[in-house]
Amino acid sequence: MIRFIFVNGIIAAASLLVTSENASAADVTCTTTLYFCSYGPDDVVTVTTTETADYAPLQGFGVYLNGSTAKLNDITIITSGNTSDAIRTNSENSMFRANRLTIKTTGKTADGINLSSNGNIDGDNLAYVKDFADIEVNSGIGVRANNFQNANANTVIILPDGTRVRQTGTGTATNAAEGNGYAVYAGNRDWDTNGLGLRDIIAGKNNNTLGNAYVFIGANAVIASSMTNGHAVYANKGGLVQLGDGAKVSTTGNNAYALYASREQQGNYKDNVRQGYIYLGGGATLRAENSPIVIRASGEGSIIANKVIETPVIADTHDGNDRVQGLDKTATRDTFGIFDVIGIMDAIDGGTIALNMSAGSQFFGSTNAHPEKAQTSNIFLNIDGAGSQWKMDADSNLTRLTLSGGATLTPYDSSVNLTNRVLTGELLNKGGNIDLAGAADLVGDVLTIKGKYTGADGFLILNTTLNDDSSATDKLIIDGDTTGNTFVRVKNIGGTGAQTVNGIQIIEVTGASDGAFKLKGDYIHKGDQAVVGGAYAYRLFHNGLGDDSADGNWYLRSELKEKKPHYQPGAPVYEIYPQFLLGLNTLPTLQQRVGNRYWSHAGNLMLSQGADAIEPYAPNSEAGSYIETSGIWGRVEGSYTKMQPRTSTSDATYDYSAYKMQAGIDGMLHEGETGKLIGGITVHYTHGVASVWSPYDSDLGRGRISSDGYGFGGTLTWYGDDGLYLD
């Protein structure tokens, strides 16, 4: 049997259309004030209304519940009347449940889901969608959970993974009784005086909201709004919105934030004025196209944070009279996720933002905790993992920034080539990177940290032109105390090296300079890392010289030795290299190459002696020289050479071992009355290894050169009968 949502006879037939797979829908009647005929599960149902919503007569809403329960399978609700909410409750103990829900409202201030109450009883108001939710409103609020007058009452909306909520209209958002312009909202409207007496109202009491409002949305939700001041996700006055991992939240209206948690009041009366909560179950993509601020937490206790409470579990048997279990804003656990954020993170008047960004997160923007305000606000950013980056495009202030696991902070300014940024707050560099070098080979960026800096094996990356004391350089200024260990990488940009005195200042510390900055260089010298600038070596030193000997700053300094510049270890290697190559290129003598294939005059008598006769026999000595006209030959050669040059720019000594293989073929090209011309083709292979010693690389022990050579060549040799030869 298929059951239907319908309406009683108060509404004219033209004002409500109910369709389903059952053609007898028109025969179904209702006897209550609900648009619902049964508590059983219903099949595919479409509800379309065109009337302006009203309570007397009851009309215009898609589904209206007043202390009742509606359970459906698949429902589509379309409304076009003004204030015609698709789903509207008006009492505690109301429950709407569906497996699949599609909503579209086009009327003025017509909400998608609007849970509210005029009652004052202990009970919950619940809308639960299990599998699929697609909600689109024009000028209303997409999802709206209002809290009640009763502290023991809760409004709860639970939506599944992949939920889509879109507010598409134009105009300016308002948070009145018939509010509009927000995509997801939890809290209470402005100037809520329901249940108040005249005396309270005259006294200025206007926020009589003691209950709690909750909106839970699963992972990978898409949430968007388009009105001026129309925030995509908005929580205030005791409201809590919790988003699952991977949410995409965006706004296109002026001054509209992607996330907004607020503690609000009207006038000076402060009864029951409570904070808003936005909890994130993981990462999110956050955009505010026409607002510089993308996230704002405003008011004491309001919070936007990577934490969650457990989403309530709704049993199949749950109905409107059952209480929703597990609603405790304080029973939280921390979460992490991948973020993609563009804009300003803003905490003001006591608000708090606390985000845990996992590997691959990108934040392009700035932070502002408004230190000029009397009320302390807090921003905590924990950026972790390789590939994570905060591209800080404006001066920022926060409570604490933690960089870990390879995450990077990069100051940025799109309007100029060089940046000069200020970050106010505590910074913990726990295996992260502060990158002033960037991708471009520009020198002169400055980052000032106004606060405590703690290094925990993090990195500072700088561009520097390695010359004398006046060299251009990126610079880190710490206007506060330093502790811990930080590694420093220096990229030499165009420096040819020069003698320094005090050195090139790359880190300035105005507070207690107890932190250690350690250079990660090109080689080790005297137990310290050093970087190369031309023929000079630079090491990192704490404190200056003379009057600056206790200034707490850090300098790159090239050293002097015996009035000679302190060469980097590559200098001896480069000096020896051509001599080593020359040694590998030596050629064999004629005798080494051809052996005993030529004997002059009487010397050929030696060929005829011995136990083994040589064929053909050598001619008599009177016959002249013996010249073999063709042959194939090969030879192997090994050598070890130790060199101590009398004069060397880098005072280098070296030794090398060489191994050579040579082969060739010879043949007679010409024979004349006075001699023969022999030609040949040769091939060569050589391998050599050299060890280089110098005072300038004493910590390393030696430099090393390894080389392989291949070649081919030709030979011409004239052998004269009179003993003269030319090779």
Q: How would you describe what is shown here?
A:
There is one protein chain. The protein is mainly β. The chain contains three helices and 54 strands. The chain has a 20-stranded parallel barrel. A five-stranded antiparallel sheet has the order 50-51-52-53-54. Mean pLDDT is 84; it is low at 1-40.
Give structural attributes.
single chain, Autotransporte_beta_dom_sf, 54 strands, 3 helices, 5-stranded antiparallel beta sheet
What does the overall shape look like? elongated
Average of the residue pLDDT scores? 84
What is Rg? 43 Å
Low-confidence stretches: 1-40
Structural class: mainly beta
> How many beta strands in the DSSP annotation?
54
- SS element count, helices: 3
Strand proportion:
over 45%
Helix percentage: under 10%
Largest sheet: 20 strands, parallel, barrel
Keywords: Signal
Organism: Pseudochrobactrum asaccharolyticum
Pfam family, one: AC_1
Domain Autotransporter: 625-727
List strands and helices in order, with pairings.
Layout: E1 16-20, E2 44-49, E3 54-55, E4 58-59, E5 63-65, E6 69-79, E7 87-90, E8 94-105, E9 113-116, E10 124-137, E11 143-146, E12 154-159, E13 164-167, E14 184-187, H1 198-203, E15 212-217, E16 222-225, E17 233-236, E18 239-243, E19 247-251, E20 259-262, E21 277-280, E22 284-288, E23 293-298, E24 303-305, E25 307-308, E26 333-334, E27 340-348, E28 352-357, E29 362-368, E30 378-384, E31 389-392, E32 396-404, E33 408-411, E34 420-430, E35 433-435, E36 446-450, E37 453-464, E38 475-478, E39 482-492, E40 504-509, E41 516-519, E42 523-525, E43 528-533, E44 536-542, E45 554-558, E46 560-561, E47 564-565, H2 570-584, H3 590-594, E48 598-599, E49 626-627, E50 631-643, E51 653-671, E52 675-693, E53 703-720, E54 725-726
Parallel strand pairs: 2-6, 5-7, 6-8, 7-9, 8-10, 9-11, 10-12, 10-13, 11-14, 12-15, 13-16, 14-17, 15-18, 16-19, 17-20, 18-21, 19-22, 20-23, 21-24, 22-27, 23-27, 24-28, 27-29, 28-30, 29-31, 30-32, 31-33, 32-34, 33-35, 34-36, 34-37, 35-37, 36-38, 37-39, 38-40, 39-41
Antiparallel strand pairs: 1-2, 3-4, 25-26, 40-45, 42-43, 43-44, 44-45, 46-47, 48-49, 50-51, 51-52, 52-53, 53-54
